Amino acid sequence: MVFVEIANDIGDRAKEVGKVIGEGTERAVEVIDDAMSDVGDAVNEVASVIDDATSEVGHAADNFGHGTENIVSDIGHGMEDLGHKAENPPTPYYKYLNTMVVIFVILTTLLAVSASGWSVPLNIQNFYSNVKDGGCRSFAGGKNNLNDGQGNSGFGFCTDTANVVYLSGRSSLGDMDVDCDGARNCGGLSGDFQAETAFDDILKGEDYGIKTLDASIHQFSVLGTCHVDLTGIIRPLALVAVVCNKQLLYSIWGDTNGCDDDDFTGEASVSLAQMCFPNEGLNGNNGHEPHDVLYLAFTGTDAVVGPRDANWKAKSASEFQRSLKAFGDSIIKKKFGTSSPSPNPSGSPETGHVSCTWIGHCAGAKCTTSDDCDGDLQCKKGVCAVDGDRKPPTCSWVGQCLRARCKLESDCANTLVRASGKCLL
To answer: Name one Pfam family in it (predicted).
Structure first.
């Protein structure tokens, strides 16, 4: 009778999932369609060694294209039939039950992460365009020979821009391996699982309300390696903006790569990975290989996501992502200029000076030599400056510095004023 109750309970749950999926968005249906196609193949592989009830589930999975709601309903009916047979189950019955549990976990996980990301603000998009082909001039720890986990080296954590640290390669950005560490092990979808994450002592000691991160719920980025410690540059649990698949997602710095990974870079929690690339079937054993992901970590104590800056007890990945947005938008505005689209300084040369396209290295940016400054700007007294005697004030508001276009004087950094539609001295 225990098997009957379990089977009927899972059948009821499968029907409920079917109703939810039937009401879901078109994108969620496409995601689940792809995933269930893979599940159907897996069910077919074991169909030869299980009873007739298993074949019903395999048949349902193979015909998933006829409608998501119907297919899950079929699974529910299959489980009900299995319940009637459970009093005298065949020898391989337990295999069938395990298969159904895995299917149920996959369905609920996909529903939890089906939300899409946010639109990319123009200033972040401009920064992405400027750094996507590499060219970093300064790396944390002086190391730019880290590995991506695919056998490619030449990666490091770039520190050449004020207020941020980002992963950069010789001619690319990062890839996205999948981290399943933390509370739930991603429904068993990882062969490399650890029950804790790097900053659990902070989570437990500072009233976050959780003991560890859950990779299937909390979006977190994995930064730093065995030989490159970033804790002196960025703070644990700091905000990390991730640009992936033409969208912006917010995450936290939640884990590091240990010495067992040979200084690997480019990794994210499974919930972040599946939000970034919902159609790639990402899990703990399958990552995103192209090097087109920007991990943008913000420096300073004010960039740390505190106990009240997000819903740490969220029940789903989408709920946690939504709870991060207000804090994430505020940090982008504070550290990077604005969270809404704004023009990057551009245009024709004026009075002998070219416009600035190298974000973080424009007039007013801190520098050591003139090589740290964009275009014809020169490093004068530690600040990138135009030719002549006047030196612009230090500018930390990226996109709103000297000669940036503006509509109001409040759009200009520091003591700059609006003149002829631009921020000027």
So the answer is: Glyco_hydro_75
